[in-house]
């Protein structure tokens, strides 16, 4: 299946920035760290990203503050502004970068969310995208009594109906709906707007779309959700996957899996782009980068954070354990790790997990703190190295076709992209794997996407031939 990498990738790497603004990966105990809520932080990160020709500025969504043993988790950064509000403000101080809002399909309604996203799309000149999630915060159903908790598979059923409805809303204004000239008899062509009707177990709605299409037709669709259901949902509906598979070999495997699913869904192999989340820790030399790596990890996983991390899985306080000593020798008091909170270990036997971790830590000679610093990064170690080494490494990704880009998660805000833009981007350009200017005027063009799935009928014959060859 190796040929799939080459077919699906285009030999280039793009960047997005995932401004997290929350959790332990965002360093706050350092003099360089700024506010997570001040617009100035958003502005600086977005404008730096745009200077570095990034494709997208990306915001996540959390529906509730993180909790720990029944209390608000008070060790890490929490609290972030609503994504669409922040992105609307950023649209005014940027010109080319895509603006991606993570929004869940479990607690929103299509008529409302589709309208807000179309608004961002029009007001930004065709730069909006929606990162579709069913949300790993589904346990926050208490915030939304009307909807309440939905089981995993039900969430994807609702998500599918939701996205189809949103697309129908975006497509509900006909081409040429609005008068082409002041001499036309009326502003709106007769019957130019069709009503979207959907009556199924998820929705019972009749919706009139309230906006025309943008220059990119409708917002680009990202998807984040890694289960088989999530992947199939992505290849049926999305343009880009925000993946959790950044390591090269794993990224190739993930690409193969997505290409196979994409072809099965009747789409060209390269139709779904892949952007894994990844942390970059760079230096002028490998030794400097490694030193910085140790320093960043020590700030991200302090002694209390290390203990709190284990407490999530043990289900009890572990404050009597030394963070610089071995993992707790007692068993967890919960039977299974909490299945609703979206962590990577849901449903596993807590006792087995603890035993496994104890053995792993012992084998690697790791203390609690060292173990957690390594383990709590779901995506492995991050890209750690000199500017030149990492540029070479990224060129390898590009040539292997393993990914289309990386969604960079800065560990510090607002300066976290400075070395990437100043030092890494020029080296990637020298290696011919990174753009030297934005290719298009809207996000769809800059991501190299075809027309939206629902609008493929209007593809030109050249575009169709190209996509058939690719398949
Ligand atoms: C890389 C990545 C980023 C995600 N970001 C968010 C987020 O910002 N907010 C959210 O509610 N869920 C987020 N999710 C979770 C998904 O919404 C989904 O609920 C969760 O992964 C469970 O679905 P799955 O079993 O298909 O993976 C993210 C998932 C992945 C893989």
From TrEMBL:
Q: Which residues form the Luciferase-like domain?
A: 15-402
Pfam families in UniProt: Bac_luciferase
Domain of life where this protein originates: Bacteria
Q: Which residues of this UniProt protein bind FMN? A: 102, 152, 156, 227
By sequence similarity, the record places it as follows:
Belongs to the NtaA/SnaA/DszA monooxygenase family.
> Which NCBIfam families does the record associate with it?
FMN_nitrolo
**What protein name is recorded for this chain?**
Monooxygenase
């Amino acid at each position: 299946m190796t040929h799939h990498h080459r077919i699906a990738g285009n030999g280039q790497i793009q960047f997005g920035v995932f401004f997290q603004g929350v959790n332990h990966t965002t360093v706050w105990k350092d003099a360089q760290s700024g506010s997570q809520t001040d617009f100035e932080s958003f502005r600086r990160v977005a404008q730096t990203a745009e200077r570095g020709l990034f494709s997208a500025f990306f915001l996540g969504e959390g529906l509730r503050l993180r909790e720990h043993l029944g209390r608000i988790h008070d060790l890490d950064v929490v609290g972030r502004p609503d994504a669409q509000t922040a992105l609307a403000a950023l649209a005014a101080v940027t010109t080319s970068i895509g603006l991606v809002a993570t929004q869940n399909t479990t607690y929103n309604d299509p008529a409302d969310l589709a309208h807000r996203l179309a608004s961002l799309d029009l007001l930004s000149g065709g730069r909006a995208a929606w990162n579709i999630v069913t949300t790993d915060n589904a346990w926050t159903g208490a915030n939304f009594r009307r909807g309440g908790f939905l089981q995993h598979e039900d969430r994807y059923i609702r998500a599918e109906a939701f996205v189809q409805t949103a697309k129908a809303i975006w497509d509900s204004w006909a081409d040429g709906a609005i008068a082409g000239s002041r001499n036309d008899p009326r502003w709106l062509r007769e019957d130019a707007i069709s009503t979207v009707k959907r009556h199924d177990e998820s929705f019972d709605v009749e919706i009139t779309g309230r906006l025309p299409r943008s220059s990119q037709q409708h917002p680009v669709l990202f998807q984040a959700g890694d289960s088989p259901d999530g992947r199939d949902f992505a290849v049926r509906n999305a343009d880009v996957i925000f993946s959790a598979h950044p390591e090269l070999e794993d990224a190739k495997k993930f690409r193969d899996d997505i290409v196979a699913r994409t072809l099965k869904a009747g789409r060209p192999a390269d139709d779904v782009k892949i952007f894994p989340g990844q942390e970059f820790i760079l230096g002028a030399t490998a030794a400097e980068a490694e030193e910085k790596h140790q320093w960043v990890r020590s700030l991200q996983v302090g002694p209390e954070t290390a203990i709190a991390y284990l407490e999530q899985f043990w289900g009890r306080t572990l404050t009597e354990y030394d963070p610089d000593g071995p993992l707790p020798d007692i068993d967890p008091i919960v039977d299974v790790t909490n299945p609703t909170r979206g962590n990577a270990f849901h449903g596993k036997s807590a006792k087995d997990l603890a035993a496994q971790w104890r053995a792993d830590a012992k084998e690697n000679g790791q203390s609690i703190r060292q173990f957690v610093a390594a383990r709590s990064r779901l995506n492995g170690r991050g890209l750690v190295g000199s500017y030149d080494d990492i540029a070479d490494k990224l060129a390898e990704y590009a040539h292997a076709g393993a990914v289309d880009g990386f969604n960079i998660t800065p560990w510090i805000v607002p300066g976290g992209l400075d070395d990437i833009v100043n030092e890494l981007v020029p080296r990637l350009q020298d290696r011919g794997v990174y753009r030297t200017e934005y290719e298009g005027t809207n996000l769809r063009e800059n991501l190299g996407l075809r027309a939206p799935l629902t609008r493929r009928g209007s593809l030109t014959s050249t575009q169709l031939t190209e996509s058939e060859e690719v398949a």
